[in-house]
Amino acid sequence: MHQLLVVDDVPDICDVVKIGFEARGTYRVFCASNKVEACAALRRGPDLALLDVLMRDNASGEIAALAGELHVPVLRMTGHPEVMRRSLDQGLPIVMKPFRICELVDTVDRLLAEAFRLQRALAENKRTAQHLADHARASLAADEFPWDQFAECWRRVCEQALGGMAPGAAADELSSGPAAPGAEP
Description:
Elements: E1 2-7, H1 11-22, E2 27-32, H2 35-42, E3 48-52, H3 59-69, E4 74-78, H4 81-89, E5 94-96, H5 101-141, H6 147-161, H7 169-176
Helix pairs in contact: 2-3, 5-6, 6-7
């Protein structure tokens, strides 16, 4: 079940979002109406925070900063076209109020799917990097290090992080050695 934090100083918006998401049966929604509540809820590690950009006392800036430190993805929301434009110009995910709850759910589903894909890729890259480091230590102990093979595996790790390769292929190649010239990668 996904954990969603909704941060808005308008209680009706929190209520509507909570009802709409929890009706799906795959979300547990927590609401916060101020900075103190939001920061406490962020520390509990929700999967995503839905954040009103223009809260009282500029609280949304501090809340977004904490979410970034805690690696909690944030979907911003606003009712102001200029704020919407600036956020889009900065590449920040944002929705315009008023919104249809079904469209909001679809947007959150897409963001969570992307966030989980990136988390899996990061975990796979960490495993591959550890494998490469272990292989490098073993090769250094034997006074032979295959730099060309290392460079090729590292290139594949980077491609994988950008979505260009199936998980595990770089580590598999390191274990089996470099591909023959002209062979399919």
